[in-house]
């Protein structure tokens, strides 16, 4: 076939297909332009979920007549000061957004800057020639987009219902508002104000405004800095988990991104703390030198590439683990009882009324004797994880809790305790599970068990290369194999604790994890599940009657156990009700 050049309008429509997926894509692009222009207030208006009309007004630097004429041309931008595409300090530098929007809608832009007393409007639609006219407005820019996809009606058919498209618009708006608490944002739908975020110096207040009281009350702040990397934001307590990743917000240099390094770090940090199939909540900001990240990897600028992704992943993961170890995993969620008790109290400073000597725990209070004897001789040498010891989830907590004195056992399942003006309810089995698990995690050394019959395991050549690269890791975990061919190995030994597990499935899962992330956290999770099962069967059960002394013994052990806010399956182990909360429930002032 003969090669021919595409028309500029068709080029713009192709670019629009990459950049302008739906109305929310336009809102994202225009908001980023407004941020780059130094706007302090951004107002978004939509009609018909953005299909009929989108408007964005800002009080930014604005444009003069010459710049206004250029801004609708392909790859015309004020965002690049040099030829270096790997040192980008702005958002909308690709130069495709405005001409792409114009190619699929009716676009008008009105703008004025500080240097000129007059404002100008440029209007264009599809292939039509741009029209310039004088306008009347103060410094700043207003962009109006009408009849989205009128020039490409086939694209319009791919849009969802108005309610779904409106949710996408809200999401784009909220993400930008989260990243810039120092700016004011307003969102109007069909001439009604729907969202309003007033500027603030407090990021937590902006998180509360955007994501709600429940999110703010069940998250805690994280701050970390190493070399040229800075991580800050808020992560949820493990029991405040969701059914999807929609409550995970990641920003790199204030740019919202979807990045596997962050999602993997969260998943690994919360492994064993949140239930299977549930996802942690987070609003995380990573500040990194601009020349160490490629933000030009995707037309919509949501997916990025790090120069040293392994370094980023390890930094984020280690800091999340430190934060959870020192505080977060000790704190129960306020949502457990939110429907009945609207206010919240979720952390009690340490203050014991009973001396520790009077309630010294005995093994029989928590373990069945047979399980206790099985693990009597297990001790920690090098440990079973590649994560450095100072980053382990089983670290001693920097902040202690106090669970008071037991006063009653309800249904032979729940311990009722009091501490000053607080009422504490403990699920005895969930608490004992976590205590048992943490003991095992701190007293475990993996031993190797040679297989009676080696397992022959076919793999891809690249996967075997991953195994050879990480052979020291495999040996540390007690996994011995022999390479039989470029695409075939023989599995000769596995960790004894795994028993009669499927050797091939285990190795394939580890290889897949190594190929994706470059480390071996997958096996940690598998070992964790084995330990969780042992803990569940070897711990104090629900339905067992306890004496007051046994209940207090359990409470004291809970106070010294990491991650005690949840059992090994991620379910909550205790809740706290303050007298203030109870008074509010009974409508007492």
Describe the structure concisely for a colleague.
It is built from 19 helices and 22 strands.
Task: Describe the fold and architecture.
This protein is α+β, with helices and mostly antiparallel strands and 589 residues long. Among the domains are: 8-197, Heat Shock Protein 90 (2-Layer Sandwich), CATH 3.30.565.10; 203-326, Ribosomal Protein S5, domain 2 (2-Layer Sandwich), CATH 3.30.230; 448-536, MutL, C-terminal domain, regulatory subdomain (Ribosomal Protein S8, Chain: A, domain 1, 2-Layer Sandwich), CATH 3.30.1370.100. Helix content is 33%, strand content 23%. The chain contains 19 helices and 22 strands. A hairpin with a 5-residue loop joins β1 (41-47) and β2 (53-58).
Which SSEs are present, and which pair or pack?
Layout: H1 8-19, H2 23-36, E1 41-47, E2 53-58, H3 65-70, H4 97-103, E3 106-112, E4 119-125, E5 131-135, E6 140-146, H5 153-156, H6 162-179, E7 184-189, E8 192-197, H7 203-211, H8 213-217, E9 219-226, E10 229-236, E11 248-252, E12 255-257, H9 260-269, E13 282-287, E14 293-294, E15 305-306, H10 309-326, H11 363-366, H12 369-374, E16 405-410, E17 414-419, E18 422-427, H13 428-442, E19 448-458, H14 461-469, H15 471-476, E20 480-485, E21 488-495, H16 503-517, H17 521-537, H18 548-559, E22 574-578, H19 579-585
Parallel strand pairs: 1-7, 11-13
Antiparallel strand pairs: 1-2, 2-6, 3-4, 3-6, 4-5, 7-8, 9-10, 10-13, 11-12, 14-15, 16-17, 17-18, 18-22, 19-21, 20-21
Helix pairs in contact: 1-4, 2-6, 9-10, 13-17, 13-18, 14-16
């Amino acid at each position: 076939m003969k090669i021919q050049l595409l028309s500029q309008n068709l080029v713009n429509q192709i670019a629009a297909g990459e950049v302008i997926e739906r109305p929310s894509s336009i809102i994202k692009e225009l908001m980023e332009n407004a941020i780059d222009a130094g706007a302090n207030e951004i107002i978004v208006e939509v009609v018909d979920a953005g299909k009929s009309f989108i408007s964005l007004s800002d009080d930014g630097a604005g444009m003069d007549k010459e710049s206004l004429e250029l801004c609708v041309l392909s790859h015309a931008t004020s965002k690049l000061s040099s030829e270096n595409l790997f040192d980008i300090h702005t958002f909308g530098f690709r130069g495709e957004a405005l001409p792409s929007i114009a190619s699929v809608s009716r676009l008008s832009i009105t703008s004025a800057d500080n240097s000129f007393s007059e404002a100008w409007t440029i209007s264009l639609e599809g292939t039509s020639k741009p029209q310039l006219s004088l306008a009347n407005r103060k410094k700043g820019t207003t962009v109006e987009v009408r009849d989205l996809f009128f020039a490409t009606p086939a694209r319009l058919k791919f849009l969802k219902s108005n309610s779904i498209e409106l949710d996408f618009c809200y999401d784009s708006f909220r993400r930008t508002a989260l990243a810039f608490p120092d700016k004011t944002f307003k969102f109007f739908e069909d001439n009604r104000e729907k969202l309003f975020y007033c500027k603030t110096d407090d990021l937590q207040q902006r998180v509360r405004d955007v994501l709600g009281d429940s999110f703010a009350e069940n998250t805690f702040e994280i701050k970390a800095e190493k070399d040229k990397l800075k991580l800050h934001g808020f992560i949820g307590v493990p029991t405040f988990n969701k059914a999807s990743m929609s409550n995970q917000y990641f920003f790199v240099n204030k740019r919202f991104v979807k990045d596997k390094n962050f999602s993997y770090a969260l998943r690994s940090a919360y492994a064993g703390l949140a239930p299977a199939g549930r996802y942690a909540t987070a609003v995380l900001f990573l500040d990194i030198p601009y020349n160490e990240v490629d933000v030009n990897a995707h037309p919509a600028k949501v997916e990025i590439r790090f120069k040293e992704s392994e370094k980023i992943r390890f930094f984020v993961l280690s800091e999340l683990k430190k934060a959870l170890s020192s505080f977060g995993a000790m704190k129960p969620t306020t949502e457990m009882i939110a429907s009945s008790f609207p206010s919240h109290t979720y952390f009690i400073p340490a203050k014991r009324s009973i001396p520790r000597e009077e309630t010294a725990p005995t093994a029989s209070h928590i373990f069945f004797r047979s399980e206790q004897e099985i693990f009597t001789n297990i001790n920690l040498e090098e440990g079973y994880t590649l994560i450095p010891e100072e980053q382990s989830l089983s670290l001693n907590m920097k902040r202690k809790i106090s669970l008071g004195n037991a006063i009653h056992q309800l249904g032979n399942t729940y311990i009722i305790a009091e501490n000053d003006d607080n009422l504490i309810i403990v699920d005895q089995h969930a608490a004992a599970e976590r205590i048992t698990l943490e003991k095992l995690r701190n007293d475990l050394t993996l031993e190797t068990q040679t297989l009676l019959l080696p397992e022959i395991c076919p793999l891809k050549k690249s996967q075997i290369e991953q195994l050879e690269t990480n052979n020291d890791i495999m040996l540390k975990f007690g996994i011995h194999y022999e390479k039989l061919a470029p695409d075939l190995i023989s599995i000769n030994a596995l960790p004894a604790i795994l028993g009669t597990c499927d050797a091939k499935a285990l190795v394939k899962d580890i290889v897949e994890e190594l190929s994706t992330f470059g480390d071996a956290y997958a096996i940690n999770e598998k070992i964790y599940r084995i330990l969780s099962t042992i803990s569940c069967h070897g711990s104090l059960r629900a339905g067992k009657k306890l004496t007051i002394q046994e209940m207090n013994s359990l409470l004291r052990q809970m106070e010294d156990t990491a991650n005690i806010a949840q059992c090994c399956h991620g379910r909550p182990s205790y809740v706290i009700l303050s007298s203030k909360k109870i008074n509010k429930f009974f409508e007492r002032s």
